[in-house]
Structure formats: C-alpha cells, structure tokens
Amino acid sequence: MPRPFDESYDDDEYGDGRRGGLVAKQSAGDNAAPLSISEISALLKRTVEDRFGFVRLRGELSGVKRAASGHLYCALKDDKAVIDGVMWRGNAQRLAFRPEDGVEVIATGKLTTYPGRSKYQIVIDSMEIAGEGALLALLEKLRARLAEEGLFAPERKRQLPFLPKVIGVVTSPTGAVIRDILHRLADRFPSHVLVWPVLVQGEGAAAQVANAVRGFSQMPADGPVPRPDLVIVARGGGSIEDLWAFNEEPVVRAVAECSIPVISAVGHETDTTLCDYAADRRAPTPTAAAEIAVPVRAELMATLDELALRKRRCALRPVTLGRERLEARVQRLPKPDAILAAKTQKLDELTDRLRRGLQDRASNAEKRLGSVGRPLALLRHRAQASSERLTRTGLTPRLLTRRWSMARDSLAPVSRVLPQLDPRLPLQRGYALVKTTEGRAVTSRELAAREAALVLEFRDGDLPVTTGSGDSVPPAPKPAPAVAAPRKPATGPERTKPERPRQGDLF
Fold it and tell me: What is the spatial order of strands in the sheet that 433-436 belongs to?
C-alpha cells in the first residue's frame, strides 16, 4: 500500500544552499508508482461495473430529456439521493410509455462511471412504471386534463352509420385482431375494408396510430382510394403497459378530432383506455367492434321480408274485411232459388199457356185457311180456265204485251187532255169559281139567289160576298184544299208511265 507523503524539508536538496520545496518522499519499503487520473478512472469503472453489473432501482424521474440522437437522459431520485441515468436509443424506442418528470419508475440496468465528470450513473436497459397505482395515477391525471377540454363530452359523440360501405381499420397487419375483424365482417355483412398498418405498442406506436387516424380523416371523398364511412382502432389484450400507446395524448386528440365516426376496440372488456373515452363508440373486443360496425345481412333480409309481408297484409286488410262484411251480408240475403221460385212457377204457367195459345191459333188459322182456301181454289180454277182459254185463242205473253203497249199508246192523247179538264185551271186565266159557304159549287143564278152569302175562289185565294137576299154577314170561307198544279202535257216522244193493271184485269 502506498504510504502517506512525508512532509519534511530537505534544506540542501538543490546543493546550492537554497531551501527545498515540499517533496513527496517515499517511506522505507514503498516502491509503488503513482497512477494517472485516467488509470484510476478506468479502475473505478471496472470495479463499479463488476460489482453492480445488474441492478433494479426505484425512483422518481427528474430532468427527462431526449437527445437528437434518440438517447434518453434523466435522473432517478428519492428523498435523500440522486443518480444520473442514460438509456440508449434502441432501448428507449421500446418503452411502453412516455417518460415524464415526476413519474415513479423501476429502472433495470447496470451502474457505471463517467470519467469526464467523475460521476457514476446507471445505464438503463428497461424501464417500467413503479406499480400499477402510480401508472393509474398518471393516467387519471391525463384523463382529467383532457376531460376539462371537452374531448370526452357525450355531445361530441356521433351516430355510427347503419351500413358502412367502406371500413377503415387501424391495427397491426400481422396480429390476430385484423383476422378476427375480417372474419366477423365476412360472416355478418361483407364490406370493403381498408387496413392502415401501425405498431400497437412500444416506442413510436402512439405516433403511428395518431397519424393513421388523421390519414383516414383527411382522405378526399372522390379520391382514387374510397374514403371510409367508419374507422375502427383495434388492438388485442395486454397489460396496462402494453396498452399505454392508446393512452397517449396524440392518439386521444386524433380520435377526438377525426371527421369519421370511430369505434375503439382496444384490449379486452375489462381494459379501458383514454382512446375509448374519445371514440364515438367503445367495443369490448375487436370482434365486438366488427359486430357493432355492420348488421347481420341475413337478419336484414328477414326483416325486409317481414316488412314486405306486413305491407301486403296492410294492403289486403281492407279487402279481407270487405270480403268478410260482404259474406255476412250475403248470408242475410234470401236464396236465389227462393226469390225465383214464384217467378219460375209463373214462367212455367205462361209457357204452358203460350203453348196452348199457339196450338189454338194454329188450329184456328188452319180452319180459316180451309175456309179461305175454297175461294182460292175457285180463283185458281178460274185462272187455270182463263189460261186454257188464252191458250186456245192463241194469245201468248208476247202478244199480250204488244196489245198492252198499243192500248197505252191509244190512251196517251187522253192523258194529255185530262189535265186541261181541271175546273181550277181557268182560275189562272182570271176566272172565278162560285161556291157556297159550305164549299158546294154554284152553277146557276137560281142557286146563287137562294144563298145569302157566297164565296168566290180566285187564283190567289177566296173572297166572301153577299147576294143581297139577306143581311147576314157571310162566314169566313174554309180554306180550300191544295190543288195540284196541272201537269204539262207531254210533247214529242216523251210518254207517261202507263198505269199497272190491277189483278184480274186482262186488258
């Protein structure tokens, strides 16, 4: 062991009569060489690391800061001492929570020294919250602060779409969660699913989840990728440390600010995170989130069928009621046979009477025909006799037609003279016809003197006159019957149509 320096002065140390300074003299038997600062620092480092190669320290974090390189620097303290700590980037990225000042943690690592400052520190390999109570206290503190901002208010909750066409899922693409969701959606109602792959625990998980939620919210409605109608944030079960990423403030704010309704399905039914409070709907499990997102297609079809059946029943109900009322009224009506029985009997009687009447009329007609038949037979006999007589005289139909034409030609002058014999024809030439008031023609003076009044008929009307044999005023003459205008006698080759001879006339 090195001995302490001997603080004696050597007056003749320099050999020039001057007094010497303080010089470290070795004691008898001490031949150890002095160590440099670097050497002693290295010895201390090896000694500390060998002795404290694995330690677990519990303390409160203080002075937490993260360097640009990703390393984490902090200090662990209790009520009597402080020790510095460092956590290299690789281990810091795997932390399940964000270290903050005042959080009580349990750090696992090894002690070492830092020669640059002659300090000792702990190199932390892993860090966890010191007990669930402390972690829950931190969680409650953050929850209260976000609740004061209104992020968990019930009036912020939105109604989920009844049947979303596109569903966005924020979860790990390699876990069992996405397979459970897809399987449940396929069973209930196949839908278009967009998966945004993220880390669900560890360093950077909270940032990825928040970015995924904001990415779905900012997707355009008419973009190349369809915009989701519903977003599901899902993760499987785990400890509170495993689920801590969904308690981070960036995730909670992203879920609360999302413009698309969000279902939070983090952990099991007993697990609750701040993401559940901020979401529009909480699902106890990821499978339950799929069940909440879409209805059962078979049940919808059954419901539609039932509604269609009810609609048909409602439409047919008036018809059914009307039919029932009609049948009830029909039953109260008399039977058709009973109504028609009397008419049928009367019809039978009339039919029988008609038959008897027709028989009687036929019998009477037969008798009348028999009585008329005798004159007809006599007429037929006469006609036959006349025909035979004509045959004997040599008259043929052609000869009879010729004689008829000759007789008609001989009567043509008479037909021209007959119109001129009309007594009213001279009225057109200024003559007058003298008549009594009763319309009898007066042809002599003696007959005219007997009448007190006469009527003179002119071409354009009648004129009553008195004869002077009486004072009575002649009555108004009766209107004369219309007189046909005289026919103009035929001249030249024009002839009148001969009158057809009547039956029985031969010439």
Answer: 433-436, 453-458, 461-466
